[in-house]
Design goal:
236 residues; alpha/beta; TIM Barrel; 4-stranded parallel β-sheet; two-stranded antiparallel ribbon; 7 helices; 8 strands; binds iron/sulfur cluster
Length: 236
């Protein structure tokens, strides 16, 4: 396949190929923007509900109680907009889509010209097509949890799901996201769909396969190592 390359300069990435999902929308930030000390590129925002149905061994949040009101959150978004922030990663203290103000926050972010990026376990809310369509309409990107796309037992173990259902439900949500076009190339060549994979000994052999899947399905792959960088998968 002949690739078309972007004319923009990206730090460390060279010229990103257009239309192959190399970068999630909102992270396609030019070098010029990064070098400007007066603007912010990407901000991680966790101020949403601590509710989450899972108990991942690598959970990166503290599940702290939400203390900011919706107006206060909007005020922070306004300040970030003033600083020309390009994207906000909504990581949540728990599962962002369970927050009662989820849509208000995401839609307000887009209205203020900032790209919302939603990290999600996906199974709880994204099997509802209307819910998915409203996210699509808002312009937000979605990054489902994806420690494994193939190993059901491992993925269910990661989230502590004793019912054994999470893997299939998460995959159902991914199918709907694809059907609704989240992985279609945007005009600037970015994609609105990615996967968040925490790499440890039990899934490290799937890294290449996952990257290839992302390339073939025009999705972005966000790879992280688990906390403390031990690389071990451990659960008490
Ligand atoms: S799904 Fe996310 S918030 Fe919930 S336990 Fe796992 S890592 Fe933590």
């Amino acid at each position: 396949m002949e690739m078309k390359f972007s004319k923009e300069e990206y730090i460390g990435l060279g010229h990103v190929p257009i239309g192959i999902g190399a970068v999630i929308k909102g992270w396609n930030i030019t070098e010029r923007h990064y070098r400007n000390p007066d603007v912010l590129p990407v901000v991680d925002f966790r101020a949403m509900s601590p509710a989450c149905p899972h108990d991942c061994f690598h959970c990166f949040t503290d599940k702290l109680k939400k203390t900011l009101t919706l107006d206060e959150i909007k005020n922070v978004i306004d300040q970030l907009a003033e600083m020309k922030t390009i994207a906000i990663d909504y990581l949540g203290e728990g599962e962002p889509t369970l927050d009662k103000d989820f849509f208000e926050i995401v839609e307000y972010t887009a209205k203020r010209g900032i790209q919302p990026i939603i990290y999600t376990e996906a199974a709880a809310k994204l099997r509802n097509r209307d819910f998915v369509r409203r996210i699509k309409k808002s312009g937000a990107c979605v990054i489902p949890k994806c420690d494994s796309l193939w190993n059901k037992e491992f993925e269910n173990w990661v989230v502590g799901d004793k019912t054994g259902k999470y893997f299939d439900l998460r995959n159902e949500a991914i199918k709907i996201l694809i059907e609704e076009g989240f992985n279609k190339p945007e005009k600037d060549g970015s994609t609105r769909m990615g996967f968040d994979m925490v790499v440890c000994k039990k899934n490290m052999h799937e890294v290449e396969k996952t990257l290839r899947y992302c390339r073939e399905n025009n999705s972005y792959a966000h790879k992280r190592r688990k906390k403390k960088n031990t690389g071990r998968c451990k659960k008490s």
